[in-house]
TrEMBL record:
The species this protein was found in: Exocentrus adspersus
Protein name listed in UniProt: Sensory neuron membrane protein
Family stated for the protein in its record: Belongs to the CD36 family.
GO cellular component: cytoplasm; plasma membrane
One GO molecular-function entry: scavenger receptor activity
Keywords attached to this entry: Cell membrane, Disulfide bond, Glycoprotein, Membrane, Olfaction, Receptor, Sensory transduction, Transmembrane, Transmembrane helix
Places the protein is found: Cell membrane
Transmembrane segments: 12-34, 494-512
Membrane topology: Multi-pass membrane protein
Length: 567
């Protein structure tokens, strides 16, 4: 009896210890330690350490970015000369082949081509943009690195479908209108000289519009006849050469002006960012641009301060309410993306962020971007003249989220949130952009001007010229690396609950086994010569055991009358 009790209790103690240990280990590792280990691992692997793969991807994208240009073709240029409202068209169709390119609604699945419903909507040139950071220098003491951005554009005939670089479009003449607006703002008395120069520099011009090939507008350049000897033309050409970045000069003194030429196959200003090794919260944070710790363009120190990253990498483990900030070299200002909602993209749980250009007319934080302290643009419009050196205005495509007055000044626009908003889908743990679209429309203000022959009778408008879209969409091995992280997390979640259930099962097994092996006990009748008091007690005990015997059909005799008497 004593031996059995010791062995049985020893077994239940062992099983209880094993089961309890499994539960404690599972709780500590699966519910507490794993999350901390995972976070430490993410912070370590997302930092721009020389050994990390993310650094290689950051310095040179292993895939080209999708770069698209949409032109606003003007169908009534001569009517506009007489005061009519500009009618804008985006002409198509355009087909996209290969992975990584989204084909929207109304698509012929067989030919991967946009259907006729879309043909009247878009003149879209699809190009490939190769991004690389060169001349990289690490600063160990500051935990930072400095690089020079390099971009190369390559036209993709395959992805542009039927579109060719030789397509001819009619758009607002960016050089003439930009030049006039600059003089109106800075030196109005010189307008008569500019008016004479326009006829000399562009001898066959009949309106404020430019009709040219796409490749000439974007990269090859529109010729400016600066070899004339007349003073007005020489004076304007001198100013153009000093004011317009990337203006090409040929051997025979022809100037070539293009929209994207200055960005193509060129090296940008030096950028210094934090590597995020000592503090992951600072990963990618812009520290300097062109050797300067802050800007000197805007009205307040807050607006002149670099906020956020360079837009190519973001700190991990961000909270939704923090938003995502980045510095835009195109706008010379920091832009904040606000959290909108949770979503699922390509099987990954992501957060959707959106960006607009604010409202400097009513938002106190944006008033520092007003062109003058007393002149603020309306909602959704940003003056880029301080950044680019020419008076050009940025908006979202089709005046999305801009003041309604602008869309009333032209015809043919159809703003769409899905097609025209700047959006980003970030995986929240690693802050990896699963999908992102950077979109920007470029516009020039036009207004009647009695001193400029081509602009005497035109109506006032903020006139769209073109808009661009830079897109990124993770595919293949890079996307798989993200999904593998969540596969591990799901497996650990399953294992930790299985561990708890397994520990409980072991403890329960020990308790049940001990209960089943407990023996039944029966007290035998006392001899006839036993005292009467003892006999009555024995009869009572045996009567109860007999009832148990009927139920269990299993008894064991362990005491006789004399033993009970001794007990």
């Amino acid at each position: 009896m004593t031996l059995y009790r010791k062995d049985g209790m020893l077994l239940i103690y062992k099983l209880g210890f094993v089961g309890g240990s499994i539960i404690v280990f599972t709780v500590i590792f699966g519910f507490v330690a794993f999350d901390n280990i995972l976070r430490l691992g993410i912070r370590d692997q997302t930092a721009l350490r020389k050994r990390n793969e993310i650094r290689k991807i950051y310095l040179k994208l292993p895939f080209p970015m999708d770069f698209r240009v949409y032109f606003f073709n003007v169908s009534n240029p001569m009517d506009v000369q007489n005061g009519a409202i500009p009618i804008l068209q985006e002409i198509g169709p355009y087909c996209y082949e290969g992975t990584g390119f989204s084909v929207e609604d109304n698509v012929d699945a067989k030919n991967m081509c946009i259907s006729p419903i879309r043909k009247e909507k878009a003149l879209n040139q699809s190009m490939i943009e190769y991004i690389e950071k060169i001349d990289v220098v690490d600063h160990e003491g500051e935990d930072s690195l400095t690089y020079s951005p390099y971009a190369l554009f390559k036209f993709s005939e395959e992805r542009s479908g039927s579109l060719k670089e030789d397509d001819v479009v009619t758009i607002l003449h960016p050089l003439i209108i930009g030049m006039v607006n600059q003089v109106v703002r800075d030196s109005p008395p010189l307008l008569s000289i500019v008016n004479k120069a326009i006829g000399l520099l562009f001898p066959h011009i009949e309106s404020i519009y430019l009709t040219a090939k796409v490749k000439e507008i974007l990269f090859d350049g529109i010729s400016i006849n600066c070899k004339v000897s007349e003073f007005p033309a020489k004076a304007v050409c001198t100013q153009l050469k000093s004011k317009i970045p990337g203006l090409k000069v040929t051997e025979d003194e022809l100037f070539l002006f293009s929209i994207l030429g200055p960005r193509n196959d060129t090296v940008g200003k030096r950028v210094k960012v934090s590597r995020g090794i000592s503090n992951s919260r600072n990963l990618g944070k812009v520290l300097e641009i062109d050797g300067k710790r802050q800007l000197s363009l805007w009205g307040t120190q807050d607006c002149n301060t670099f906020k956020g990253t360079d837009g190519w990498i973001f700190p991990p483990l961000l909270n939704p309410e923090e938003g995502i900030w980045s510095y835009s070299t195109d706008l010379c200002r920091s832009i904040g993306a606000r959290y909108v909602e949770d979503a699922v993209v390509k099987g990954v749980n992501v957060r959707r962020y959106e960006v607009d250009l604010g409202d400097m007319e009513h938002n106190i934080q944006d008033k520092c971007y007003c062109p003058t302290p007393k002149t603020c643009l309306k909602r959704g419009v940003f003056d880029m003249s301080k950044c680019m050196g020419v008076p050009i205005y940025a908006t979202l495509p089709h005046f999305l989220r801009a003041d309604k007055i602008y869309s009333k000044q032209v015809k043919g626009l159809s703003p769409s949130l899905d097609d025209h908003i700047i959006n980003m889908y970030f995986e929240p743990m690693t802050s990896s952009p699963i999908e992102a679209h950077k979109r920007m429309q470029f516009n020039l203000p036009i207004a009647p001007n009695s001193k400029i022959t081509l602009m005497k009778n035109i109506s006032e408008a903020l006139h769209p010229i073109f808009w661009i879209e830079e897109g990124i969409s993770l595919e293949g091995p890079l996307l798989k690396k993200i999904t593998n992280i969540f596969l591990v997390i799901r497996v650990v979640k399953i294992i930790r609950w299985l561990g708890i259930l397994f520990g409980i099962s072991i403890i329960a097994y020990g308790v049940l086994s001990h209960a089943k092996k407990q023996p039944d006990q029966k007290i035998l009748p006392l001899p006839q010569d036993a005292p009467k008091s003892h006999r009555s007690i024995a009869n009572f005990a045996n009567s109860n055991l007999d009832r148990n015997e009927t139920d269990n059909k299993k008894t064991r005799t362990i005491l006789n009358g004399h033993e009970f008497d001794r007990y």
